[in-house]
Automatic annotation (TrEMBL), chain A:
GO terms, molecular function: ubiquitin protein ligase activity; zinc ion binding
TM spans (from-to): none
Region annotated Disordered, chain positions: 1-36
Source species of the chain: Xylona heveae (strain CBS 132557 / TC161)
Residue ranges annotated for the RING-type domain, each copy included: 137-351, 141-189
GO biological process: protein ubiquitination
Reactions catalysed according to its record: [E2 ubiquitin-conjugating enzyme]-S-ubiquitinyl-L-cysteine + [acceptor protein]-L-lysine = [E2 ubiquitin-conjugating enzyme]-L-cysteine + [acceptor protein]-N(6)-ubiquitinyl-L-lysine
Keywords for this protein: Metal-binding, Repeat, Transferase, Ubl conjugation pathway, Zinc, Zinc-finger
EC category: transferase
Protein name: RBR-type E3 ubiquitin transferase
Matches recorded under PANTHER family: RBR FAMILY RING FINGER AND IBR DOMAIN-CONTAINING
Superkingdom of origin: Eukaryota
Automatic annotation (TrEMBL), chain B:
Family statement: Belongs to the ubiquitin-conjugating enzyme family.
CDD domains linked: UBCc_UBE2N
GO terms assigned for molecular function: ATP binding; ubiquitin conjugating enzyme activity
Signal peptide extent: none
Protein name: E2 ubiquitin-conjugating enzyme
Documented EC number(s): 2.3.2.23
SMART domains (alphabetical): UBCc
Amino acid sequence: MSADSEDEFMSGMSSEGGFEDGNESDSVSFGEEFEDDEPALDFGLHDKDITSAPKKPYEVDFDVFGPRDIQKYQDKQIDEVGAILGQPPESTAILLRHARWNKERLIEGYMDHPEDVLEKAGLGLAGAVPAKTMVVDGFVCDICCEDEPGLETYAMKCGHRYCAECYRHYLSQKIREEGEAARIQCPGDGCSRIVDSKTLELLVEDDLKDRYHELLTRTYVDDKDNLKWCPAPNCIYAVECGVKKRDLNRIVPTVRCDCGHYFCFGCTLNDHLPTPCALVKMWLKKCEDDSETANWISANTKECPRCNSTIEKNGGCNHMTCRKCKNEFCWICMGVWSEHGTSWYNCNRYEEKSGSDARDAQAKSRQSLERYLHYYNRYANHEQSAKLDKDIYLKTEKKMTNLQSSSGMSWIEVQFLDTASQALQQCRQTLKWTYAFAYYLARNNLTEIFEDNQKDLEMAVENLSEMFEKPTSELAALKVDMMDKTSYCNKRRIILLSDTAENLKNGSWKFNIDINTA
Amino acid sequence: MALPKRIIKETERLMAEPVPGIKAIPHEDNLRYFDVEVHGPSQSPYENGIFKLELFLPDDYPMTPPKIRFLTRIYHPNIDKLGRICLDVLKSNWSPALQIRTILLSIQALLGAPNPDDPLANDVAQRWKEDEPAAIQTAREWTRMYAVSENR
């Protein structure tokens, strides 16, 4: 069962996931022509599927790409599609960007109505005009009003001609100030022609070219569903992963960027295994907004029936007098006090249906609040502990140096501290999210197994965490113990995550909310 | 900073061949700042009104659009209380090939053809859609109140 669904994910990946996504589908008709430039990446992907060690159920296939790789794949696709469409690379690039890199749709559309496609992408009528500046007699630039003879001018195929200086200025304004790249239009009024890369190469200064290419690469990654920028600050890598949006309720695609940052490919938040994105979103929202404050208010307070001021009863009898409007009422039935007649201090409506309903509602609200707080406190505790562990991690380096000098161990020999601290971080991160996950779980056997796993991991983590607080002098003696505990932690984490992921994939979890509507 | 040739030329042309119904005069101490007057188009609720605007050419002009604002109060779905104007050519559709003259003509055209589907002043736009005759009546009254000088 699990193998089946795993295959499904993998096949989904290799058919649509790669940069070379068109290879399987559209090359049915074109494949033979392009046999020799079969993309290397595709082979790489298949190789990996065969040779790599069997992955854990919670792991997903992904690749990390640097800016240069992305540029390369972009160029390769442009070449391929350009050959099919019979268009020069710069026009192909514009067409592909216009089609948001959906190769199949572009080729299909182009085969049916080439003029329409070109027009919509801002390429207008074809006609060979080489990209170079020229001098035109009697020319007056509409932008700067310069009319000196010998003025260099430039125009694209649309014929909107301006002096080269203004053109250059216009492009740099767009790139530098407005951050545009892929869809810069001709400076002419109302002209929707997109400035092609040849023009940019010709006119833009070198320092801006880098920025331009960076922006182009950015739109390439932004346009592709299977590519995402690593959200870590200042990280230049993009990650490719084939997991689709619709699969996110069955898998938590956690990827590790080359910069070392772990994040969820589905929502780009920090690693939140084992909790699926939808639950994470709900949980964060719940913790963030004041819904629980509202819950507390509803559990502990009532409103004055006349002026609606919120009142907390902190003792005394049921005869309430609103501080604000001086309304006198009964705390139990909320009725006007004067109507209580002789049954003062013993509201006889208490046993009535409306009274008991109100009481039930209050009890329920209190219960759900307590349940939430149970999970939230543990979630928050692990978050806090992870922060503290992070401090330890920062101090680890120092500890390692100390240990080296005090015990005479070599640098390699003290690496166990670093490994342990990283394991601790990762396990805490996982534990934290198990509580958000558990909050949404319905009670059944699976949930109990889950909680057992959770408990085991938690104990392992706390044991390891405790060792970190020992003075440096004792650490050398604890080395073996610590390494054992580290690997035990990691093992418990893998067990928990594998179990959760298997059940998620098979749809075995029962939640107390509808995960699909989240 | 020396005034670019483009601005000098544009100003000269605005003075030499003014557009009918539009006046734009630069300040003597700041040639990038213009006092503008636009006549309400005939057949529109703004007919007979003379609307004052201010226009400023930023340093990057003509790479960036001029900044324009109505000084005279006006009841119009695309112009808000502060006189700011919602017009595509002043924002995303600006092209350096456009000029002060063309922009002011666009604004005059906007007075003749209000677009309540792309509103800036929500209350006005809503009224415009719900009860157009009444909205037009208000626009006419405001024009009489704020945009018609006494000596007429």
